Amino acid sequence: MNERTEGLLSWQWNLYPDNHCDRRNLLLHALTVPLFQLGTVLLVTSPVTSPWLALPGVVAIVSALALQGRGHRFETVSPVPFRGFFDVVARLFVEQWVTFPRFVLSGGFARAWRSARNAAASVA
Fold first, then answer.
1. Considering only CA atoms, which of 75, 64, 92 is closest in space to residue 8?
2. What sign results for the dihedral spanned by CA atoms 10, 101, 104, 72?
3. Nearest to 17 by CA among 29, 6, 5
4. Residue 116, Cβ neighbours under 10 Å: how many?
5. How far apart are CA 43 and CA 51, in angstroms?
6. Is 90 exposed, middle or buried (0-12, 13-18, 19+ CB in 10 A)?
7. Mutual orientation of helices 23-45 and 54-72 as an angle, nearest 10°?
8. Is the pLDDT assigned to residue 6 strictly greater than 90?
9. CB atoms within 10 A of CB 30
10. Closest C-alpha among 93, 105, 98, 90 to residue 36
């Protein structure tokens, strides 16, 4: 699971659908990925716009990641443990800016949403 011979992007993409099946987690990601992205933009541009934007940027990033962490508790498949600090940064940044948008644009989000509804209907 933690072997990445094909690189981070491929590795994360291959595991992504299994870690994003629950509607609550999907909804949290849909709301918080843009929050993370906004926070990143605020933080990165703060040196040239206003240093005061760094704080809301950090708050947005931390809030988004905390909510997503809560969302992953609803999933039956837990995320692969991090290897260390740089792995945390790389994986989270790639997920927010590449993998989740790709998941949405490729139809993966819609498929997961429909599958979650079908699974809930079959349990009821």
1. 92
2. positive
3. 29
4. 17
5. 9
6. middle
7. 160
8. no
9. 13
10. 93
Q: Position of tokens 């792995």?
A: 87
Do 12 and 99 contact (CB within 8 A), yes or no? yes
Q: Is the predicted pLDDT of residue 120 greater than 60, yes or no?
A: no
The number of helix segments (H) and strand segments (E) in the chain equals: 6, 0
Grade residue 115 by pLDDT with cuts at 50, 70 and 90: very high
Instruction: Give the gyration radius of the chain's Cα atoms.
Output: 16
Single-letter amino acid code for the residue at 30:
A
Mean pLDDT score of the chain: 92
68-109 confidence digits (pLDDT tens): 999 999 999 999 999 999 999 999 999 999 999 999 999 999
Q: Residue ranges per domain, the chain?
A: 15-123
DSSP helix/strand/coil, 45? helix
Nearest CA to 112 out of 25, 14, 12 is that of: 25
Residues in contact with 4: Cβ distance below 8 Å, sequence separation at least 6, in sequence order: 11
